[in-house]
Amino acid sequence: MPKTALHRPGSHAPTALLTSLAELLREWLPRQRWFAGKGYPVTGLTVVSSTELYPGCLHLLIRTEHLGRPTLGGPGTPPADDCYQLLLGAQRVLPPRLAHAFIGRASAGPLADLDVYDAFHDPKATGLLLERLRTPGTAGPLLFERDARVTVPGGLTPRLLDTEQSNSSLVYGDAFILKVFRRIQPGINPDLEVPWALTRQGCTRVPAPAAWFRTSRPREATLGVLQPFLRDASDGWTLALQSLTLERKFTEEAYELGRATAEVHLALAAAFPVDAPGPPQHERLAAAMSERLDATARSVPELRPYVPGLRAAFDAVATLDAPTRPAQRIHGDLHLGQVLRAGRQWSVIDFEGEPARPLTERRRLQSPVRDVAGMLRSFDYAARSRRPWRPQWAHRCREAYCAGYAAAAAWDPRKEPELLRAYETDRAVYEVLYEARHRPDWLPVPMAAVGRLAEGR
Length: 457
What we know:
Layout: H1 14-28, E1 42-54, E2 57-66, E3 81-91, E4 102-105, E5 115-118, H2 123-134, E6 137-139, E7 142-146, E8 158-160, E9 168-172, E10 176-180, H3 190-200, E11 211-215, E12 221-228, E13 234-235, H4 236-245, H5 251-271, H6 279-299, H7 307-318, E14 339-342, E15 345-348, H8 359-362, H9 369-384, H10 391-409, H11 417-438, H12 444-454
Antiparallel strand pairs: 1-2, 2-3, 3-5, 4-5, 6-7, 7-11, 8-9, 9-10, 10-12, 11-12, 13-14, 14-15
Helix pairs in contact: 3-5, 4-9, 5-10, 6-7, 6-11, 7-11, 9-10, 9-11, 11-12
């Protein structure tokens, strides 16, 4: 096969690559589960960095712009543009085994007449990623690093997990899992920073990072983290749905999950600074929640009738004059899908936080009540995903979870009802926006909670 510009390292300049890729990516990106600009056409593309891993395989950071995307305001505001991590392959003729990864055929530029595909589906490309992580070093702006105490075997067979998530995960030989961050923001990602800190604290509830890779240009950012794969574990969401289907209790599991959450919070408080919030912090928190509520109501008309009742929960926090639980590093997006159970042991995963929110906010000190509220909302989600709805199942899980948390943490989150209601309300508002954008059929689930919370229940 004659060599093209793709096969000559350094010859594919960013502007030339866009000649080949712009049209293809404008159509392909919005269809991806991890694409944040749903509903807003891609009006601009910029190649932030381009690294040829081997002839026919490019690692790219692509910045997208979206005309008409609203500015939501507040600390949860997504930027008008985003940066995405891509691994693209290009071949004269795509083999049938990669047909499902096909993006399109380039008609111009250095990739002209080549089939472009998502190389995260290609065992050759993903196998090379593992080798890079096993032998630390650099490739252009990419830096591959690992924990020297951990041995990662070579030759592990890769497979891409086919699950709904905001990133991509590769399992290697059922021994390790590589989480690849799709939407990239400058700075260290909490999904590397937090598990690493917890490992140093001796916390066994979180799989320890074995290796990771990052970029140094244009600014440092985490690109992916390799951790042990808990192959015999089941996620909390699956276990909860099994419990509902079999019409059995989930209270014992919920109690132990509460204990696990508290242990992680205690380790986080020891690993990172803490801060005692007072009235000014409560006012700022309530204001940020109200801004998110207003912004979501502008985007989701179904929410508007409930705004006054929901705002009352935030107003109650704004008037708190007594100290509450110290702010600390937390999980930030805790729910049943972020916990795994093997035997009787619960593990907590995915410390990235809510990917739609800025990285600086996700690394901010916050009340642990926020994590508790996220899990309580998840019990309600599970209960409402099965018919007939079983509110008592969710209620018993809530009580057991909080009791388990209180037993391990020596304080009960139910003793701070204003904060708990406010965080539950804020979470439900987030869920409304998420479902409206990504899964409209699920919108009735958070809307049911919105009706309850707006009435103060």
